[in-house]
Design goal:
5-stranded mixed β-sheet
Amino acid sequence: MHWNIHLKKWEKVKNGYRFTCILMLLFFPLLNILAQGESCDNPLVINGGDLPFQQDGFTSCDLGNNYTINACPSPLCPGAANSPICPDFSCSSGQDFVIEFTPDISGPYYIHAFDTDSDQLTVDGANIATDLDQTGLFILDDCPSSAGYTCLGSSTTCNYSAGSSGGIQLWSAITPDLNVELEAGTTYYIVISSSAGGSIQPDCTDFGLFISEPDPDGNDLCENAVPLTEDMGMVSNISGTNVGEPDSWTPGQNGIDCFGSAQAGSNWLQNENGIWFTFSNLLDQDVSLDILGLDCAGLYNGFLQVGIWTNTGTCDLAAETFIDCWILSTGNDANLSMPDLPAGEYYLYLDGNYGEVCSWEFDSEELFVDIPGCTDITACNYNPIANIEDGSCVEPDCNGDCDGTDTGPNTEDECGVCDDNPFNDNETCADCADIPNGPNTEDECGVCDDNPFNDNETCADCADIPNG
């Protein structure tokens, strides 16, 4: 009887244990989902096939301060009116969110931690972000728990004074972003952290994340600048980077206000994700270039910054002549007016204001005109401003040479020899009858024909010895 009682007790215990295990099995995966991004052991995983990646709703809150990034220098903010800086000088002493990223393509990447706060204030026309205050963005070649990790890039929120409300100092927050060269197949760690001593949101941050998809043939480099054409349709800077575009030639860094006002955080001080175009102005004339259907993704403030410089082939805008610049707002068409623009070649550079991603179309009565000519870049008479092929292309000679816009002096004979001497044509492959690559051979009697059965008949002696 005692044995039966113990058995019943064990059944109760066993069933309770089984029930507890089931609850734990159901609950532990939920804990893992909630804790995604907490550390390198459970990061948010992004691969090259997920690009371009744009998603908001992330937070480092309640994930803990698992890492302090010491290997990255504290980035500098553009302009003089930035404050307050992170007390730890790296914005990594607060709670962390970890992303594991493995790209498929080697090249430049634009990475942006953008503001997802819907409750923004406006002071004197400036957007006041209360999220991402004193936030750090870091990209590393290994988990920061490793002693040997290398910092490939870092950025922090840049805060600009934007007045006060109710006696409280307010700041316009320019969110952190990075441009960095990455190798295909290599795993990197992106860490979003914050300062434990931040003044608005002191310990953690809510954020969205954008990672561009490199375009190996894209026009984010000057040497790949695309000529403006009427039929190019909708274009975008979604694959743009600032690789090769230093901030030193931006209008804002040269005392030029593209916005037309003193709005803090909106002037063109940095290059983040710009793309290049070229155009030809055929006459000294007033030129209007329309930006139509401008639609920005909302990574920052919905602004696109546009600048025009002369194009003498330098790909260095600091060495070119500045024409004009504009900062355009999403949802609006814009007319870029260039009165008395001299005839010539020009660079057109468009960059998202503080990393904004936009799409738009171009239109212009003065620039989009029909220009017939040779559009084959390999031809001797290639016309770089022609947009209608008229069949006039003159090909280079057999040696690849041109004589101005005419073909070069060399010709290829029937033997495949290319030179400029007509008197030796076909010498290397002519038969005995002077026929290039002909069938005739000369026998020992000096007879030239294509019949091998009569060779040497005309001069053979009685012993059939030619000339015997």
